[in-house]
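Journal club prep, notes for RB
We'll compare a predicted complex against what the paper describes. Inputs for the pyridoxal-5'-phosphate case:
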Amino acid sequence: MRRTVPTHPAKSRLDEDEIPTAATLRVLRPRRASPTDVARPTRAEINLAHVRHNLRELEACLGEGAGTGAARAARTEVWPVLKADAYGHGAPAIARTLERAGVSGLCVALLEEGLELRNAGLGCPVLVMGGYYGRHRDGVEALVEHNLTPVVYEASQIESLVSALRYVRSAPDRNGPAERLAVHLKVDTGMARLGVTEADIAPVLAALRQAPELELVGLMTHLACADGETLEHTDEQLRRFASVDALVRRAGFAPRVRHAANSAALLQRPDARFELVRPGLAIYGVDPCPGLPRAGLRSPRLRPVMEVVTEIVALRDVPEGACVGYGYTWKAARPSRIATIPIGYADGLSRALSNRGEVLVGGRRAPIVGTVSMDLTMVDVTDLPGAALREPVVVLGHQRGRFGEDAIGSAELADKTGTIAWECLTSISRRVPRIYRQA
Ligand SMILES: *Cc1c(COP(=O)(O)O)cnc(C)c1O
């Protein structure tokens, strides 16, 4: 039986073109809503001037309380972390901003994320921290051809890098790095996630020794408890890192940079800064451990980079006793004015904010009432006289208006939803267009 489904011929050809092939699969293409093809007023505003400001603040922190004499003689490099689409801010725009601001390298988690940056025209070193380059050799070849810097911790990774390098160098139509390929060796000093332990390092060093095509430029580890108050876990990890560092150097390697510090360690552990630091969250303007005492250390004045804003699209007055939203989880205790905003959990506004969260209207807080739905959320504006259709609403960020001035940060959202600021930022979905501002 033939069904007569009206299809637009040009459109269906386009769809066929979009079926991913091996070549298109190599690059992460999230197809985020672009500002020009959304009708809805919900958007994430990304302030690139704040990215530059946060970078300068972190550099200022590195300049102070950062050890003495010889340790400070060489400047610590800042390689910001742009994994997960730059924590939801849009990796290409953030990368261009940071590259122009003078960073000497960037970090991502996935090969795909590194390729996305190369596709966007970024030329600086890009460290691919996840260590997985695909089950087939084309992943490693893509890495080599695009001169991305791999993290290694197993002999097999080193062998497959060498064979990919030899192959692309011998193939007339492929590009390989002219020089030796830089690699960073990842050490597991206690987190038990990725990396080689001191006990297992001998075969990895042996593989590196047999790979003159590779140059061990970095030695890295990752800290599990840098944002906590307990120092001893980090102390222990750093002791193990120092021990592996000595071992690697005794084995004849001379990695130019050692790195261990995420944002938290950068801010509160000068002894974890070494020659390079890898801040993520702080670059986006969020302090990973606000309120922790940092004796003798500078606290940066970070500026949040992302704000999520929308507008009131519906307003209604409900009598006392009326209910709101799915499941009738909120009941008006008085005659109330309810505003509907076009943002929901599919946009990254956690459903855990139902009857708990707040938004800003006119610079003052208004409570979220009822259950957050997929696309829409209701707020009680009874105490905000004059709240009107199309009035701006801030879900994340700062607002100044006729009632005053206030801000809702990702740490507050995280607190209320039982998660962390990292997850709040990376949860803002691709349905929300990112709008970039330079000031
Ligand atoms: C995510 C990540 C970072 C950055 O962490 P923040 O806490 O966001 O600063 C640094 N290093 C590695 C290995 C990471 O996975």
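Talking point for the session: The pocket of pyridoxal-5'-phosphate is lined by residues 81, 83, 129, 222, 262-264, 278-282, 288 (CB under 6 Å).
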